[in-house]
Amino acid sequence: MSENRQPALPARQTLIRAALALSGWVALAATALPEGSAPRWAPVLLFVCLGPGLALLYPRPGPLRPGARLEAAALAAPLGLSVAVTAATTLFLVERFSGTAFLVTLACFTTLASALPGLPLPAATRGAVERAGAAPVRRR
After folding, report:
1. CA 38/CA 41 separation, integer angstroms
2. pTM, to two decimals
3. Do 34 and 40 touch, CB atoms closer than 8 A?
């Protein structure tokens, strides 16, 4: 056996990753409900706005500092909407856009992104430097 094995993820992080991975498929399944009902559009709206962004930012390899948590929450919606706009534009350019194709593309992206480590956050790295005893850098 190799000594370079990575430690297993805690159960909570595994559940977060699984929930993020399944969120797109739940939104896709919700489209089978009757048109115009809240149980149909609410999961789709939440997934399109937040799903891809949260999958890119969470879960982090360790506990986040309060500043990093706020930063991740603030970045989730714009990042998720950016991915959604990119997917929609690509589908329009190849003349294959439909609601189902759009949700399947986002669900696949979110499933893949939730299996990978989260993007680095500047507030998380700043906290590591400050905890190590280094003085914070002051900018003018």
Report:
1. 5
2. 0.76
3. yes
Task: Count other C-beta atoms under 10 Å from residue 52's C-beta.
Answer: 28
**Integer Cα distance of 116 and 27 in angstroms:** 21
**Which residue type, as a one-letter code, is found at position 115?**
A
36 vs 30, higher pLDDT = 30
Chain CA centroid to CA 93, Å: 25
The SS3 assignment for 47 reads helix
Tokens 């993820």 sit on residue: 9
Proportion of the chain in helix, strand, coil states, percent, rounded to 5: 65, 0, 35
What pLDDT sits at residue 13? 79
